[in-house]
Amino acid sequence: MDKALASGACDVSSILAGGANIKYDLNDMSTPDSNIDGVFAKNLFSAKDFSGELKKTLPGKIYRLLRKVGHIADDNNVRVYLAGGFVRDLISGGRNFDMDIVAEGDAITFAPVLARQLKATLQLYPRFKTATLKLQDDLRIDLASARTEYYAHAGALPEVRLSSLRDDLCRRDFTINTLAVSLNKKFFGKLVDFFNGQKDIKDKKIKVLHDLSFIEDPTRIFRAVRLEQRLGFRIDKHTKSLLKAAVDLKMFDRLSKGRIADELKLLLSEPSPAKVIRRMEQLHKLKFLHSRIKYNRRMKNYLVSAQKILHWHKTNLPQYPIQGWLVYLLAITDELKFRAAGEFYAGLGLKRSECRCLMSCKRYGKEAIASLQKVKLSCPSKIYKILKPLSEEAVLFLAVKYGERNLREFFMKFLKKYAKIKLRITGDDIKKLNLRPGPEFRNILEYILWAKIDGQVKSKKDELALAGKYISRLRN
Ligand code: ATP
Prior knowledge:
Blueprint: H1 3-6, H2 12-17, H3 39-46, E1 48-49, H4 51-57, H5 60-75, E2 79-83, H6 85-92, E3 98-104, H7 107-118, E4 121-125, E5 130-134, E6 140-145, E7 147-151, E8 158-162, H8 165-170, E9 180-182, E10 190-192, H9 197-202, E11 205-206, H10 213-216, H11 219-231, E12 234-235, H12 237-248, H13 257-268, H14 273-284, H15 297-316, H16 324-332, H17 338-347, H18 352-372, H19 380-387, H20 392-402, H21 408-416, H22 427-431, H23 439-453, H24 460-475
Parallel strand pairs: 3-6, 11-12
Antiparallel strand pairs: 1-10, 2-3, 2-9, 4-5, 5-6, 7-8, 9-10
Helix pairs in contact: 5-7, 11-13, 11-14, 13-16, 15-16, 15-20, 16-18, 16-20, 17-18, 18-20, 19-21, 20-21, 23-24
The structure holds adenosine-5'-triphosphate.
Adenosine-5'-triphosphate binds at residues 84-85, 96, 100, 172-173, 177, 217, 219-220, 223.
């Protein structure tokens, strides 16, 4: 651990007691002004020149965009650096085109100028002194002011103060995320590496910057495992013991349910949540979840098979995006019964729509399986009626859970075909058939939809004819 970083840091007990400010003594780098043309410029002159790699590795449009950002920053006397995951992934050979740019100065003032010149849409977050710019071709720049963060107490959201690049990099989670590349013209492509990030990337090591890192922000426990599994790196030995110590100190309890939910969502949105969950089990027995949720072979199989099913969905139904992480959450919480699950989801502060989506599985799942076992694949509308009360995520989870019982075909047909069938007629067409609007409208439309799912009606004309028949039967 860098001694300079630790100087001025508090001991664990004062942080746990709350109200402790963690501020690192960075000597000559502590204010933005002190490094404008002095020590810092010298650092940049001697820093490794990475511009060749940028040109070679990045797609032309991103390279040109970064040069342009540098020019605009020069015109506005702002120093800008690429940082974080973008640089890490560039060095480790991964692809990550979400640009994380740090500005020395106030990003909130610079962001509108940059957005105007790049013709980007802009979202400002003044409280955190950050901004997001959305550009053409799905490109995105996250612009942040170089800052120091203060934690009112362990697990709290940080309070932000403007500072220098080095201060900013030293508040980061892991050494592999502390690399920065200068974008201003004079130093374009100079790679700033204060904490041996390049070496740790080469050694595939995840290391915290100081011993109190997980105490200061327990969400880093999740981040460490996510990055480790995504990048195929390893949490370094000392960092692992710090992580375990933070868990033993019950640091998860310091996080609000909302922050746990955010982290849960992020980890279940990783390319392989099965690996992340297995590793979390090894490290801390999933202590951040419900006491009744235990990792076992069944959960492991569900997670692995959910990944396959979600891949199937993405390949076959790309135009119908779903919330894949909810399928994994159903896999993890399968042991929880209706009431416990409802309390758990609501306790996490999930959105109402997300809770509804999950609870439809708990409410109708078992019954749906029992009913499906009694119908034939040749009765599409019956399959539709059974599965309709469930969210698509719930149906996908049932496909995971009951896939082996020859039921998978029912789920696939429902998702791919039956659930996507829409009527051409609407309530207005029924009105024109001289029926006064009322509850019967819904029944008529539903009846025609079932007929359409069974292939009995095809065109709009067929639908209207069937509606006419239904209405005349009503009148007789
Ligand atoms: P991803 O590919 O998941 O987006 P990322 O490293 O870019 O990876 P972000 O969540 O976008 O992750 O964060 C951007 C950067 O901000 C990180 O690289 C890291 O340096 C820093 N960061 C994010 N969260 C924390 C945290 N809890 N503590 C310290 N630094 C953090």
